[in-house]
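Hi U.,

Before I forget, here's the chain from the pilot set. I'm dumping it here mostly so it's searchable later in email.
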Amino acid sequence: PARVEPGELTTDKLRVAAGYWTRELDKSLSRLGVDHVDAYYFMGVNDPRVVASEELHSAFEAARGAGKVSHLGISTHQNAQECLEAAIDTGWYSLAMIAITPAGWYDYTVKNVRPGTGTLVALKPVLERARDAGIGLVGMKAARHIATGAYGGKFEAAEAAEDFFDNLYDEVFLQSGLNAFQRSYAYCLGHGLDVVNADMQNFKHFEENVAAVRRVPELFA
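Structure:
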C-alpha cells in the first residue's frame, strides 16, 4: 500500500490503499502474462494497523476468490516486531519478509497478562510464535550488512565493515572457514528463519550463499 504516516490512518485512507493494492496486483499479473501468482506482499509496511486492516484484507480475499493469488505476505524494514505481532494476531498471513541481521533479533520475551488472573506469563519468542501461526519467515538484508546504509549497502561498500558481527559469534563459528558474508547468511538461517532473501549482486554471491546453506545443519544443530 502507499505509505501512510503514523497517526494519519483513517478508514478512507485504508480503503484507498486497498484499491491501490488491487490495481497493482492486476498490473503485475498483466506484465507477467499470468492469471495467478502464489503470493503477493504488502511492501514496506511499518505500521501494525496496516497489517491488521480489514480493508486491505478484504481486497486480498476478493483477489483470492477471483483466483488471482493464493497467499498474502508483508515486507517490513521498520517496526518489524510490532508488524509481525499483528500478522500473528490476525491469522491472515502466510509470509513475512523482515529486515534482520545477526545483531537484530525479534526474540524478546513478551510479558502478557493471563485473562482473569492478573498473572504475567511469558510468551514464546516472536519468530517461534510466527512459525506456530503458519507464517513462513523470510529474512532480508541479513547477508549484506545493514550497517553500511539505511537499508543496506552494496557488497563493495560493505567490505569495510565485514567483521561487524564477529563479536556475536563463538570461536567455533568464526573458525568455520566461511567468509564474513557467509557467516551472516548462515547465522540467520540457523536462528529461526526459513529462507533469506540475500543481496546477491553477482553469481559469486549466489555460490557463496549456497555453500553457506549447506553448512547450517553442521554449524547450528
